[in-house]
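Worked example 2:
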Amino acid sequence: MAGGREIKTKIKSVQNTRKVTRALEMVSASKIRKAQDRMKSSRPYARAMKQVIGHLAQANTDYQHPYLVERKDTKRVGYLIVSSDRGLAGGLNNNMFRKLLGEIRKWQEQGVEVDVVTVGQKASVFFRRVKVNMLATVTHLGDTPRLEQLVGVIKAMTDAYTEGKVDKVFLAYNDFVNTMVQRATFDQLLPVPPAEAQVAHHDWDYIYEPNEKTVLDHVLTRYIESVVYQAVLENLASEHAARMVAMKSASDNATKLIGTLQLVYNKARQAAITQEISEIVGGAAAV
């Protein structure tokens, strides 16, 4: 059995760790409300953009935008991966990375190459060790990410798709369901998938000014940016929720461990006292 001094040192160490985990839990609890508000406020815009694109996809037009055309052969796919910059969020990032590696392995088994663009420090570090081609990366978005920070990585992937270097583009992120549940989600970004609520097909078209290409380029680019920005906000809310739950669990485990160590310390202390009494009694009897 360890000595009393060693056990006291362990108890002190666990107590210090509990202070850190409780502080992180409180910080995430204070930030999660603002993150949820930002996420919920941007959802109507993202939903409206999807409806607009659904109508445009159903229009009968002579011009077919590259973002709306499904390609026959898939030789290379791209993944835009959204992760957190910081750790201590339980298995939030690792669960998504593990599922994503399974998807990438399926493509590679079919002879399809994979390119990635990463958002967040965790994805950047992780996928540098994986046999995939990394086109671009952005990190340290902070607690209030801005669209301007994402334009560069979005353009890197859309340019690769427009130039024919990538045939499909997918978006990987953690979807915020509630405080206890965050779901790893993989959505097809390009070509733009059909809208969930399909609009009945008619022989009509919109009137585009100045021309179809200019208008569709602008609208579809805004659509891609809105989808990616919404994914970043969803992932940020998921990060704070996962960290809050993980740190609460760590604090609870630290409390249990302190109780266990305290019992061990009491037993060791009692054993030492008993031994001293026995030595004193034995010495007195010998005299």
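The mean pLDDT is 84. Residues 60 and 70 are 16 Å apart (CA to CA).
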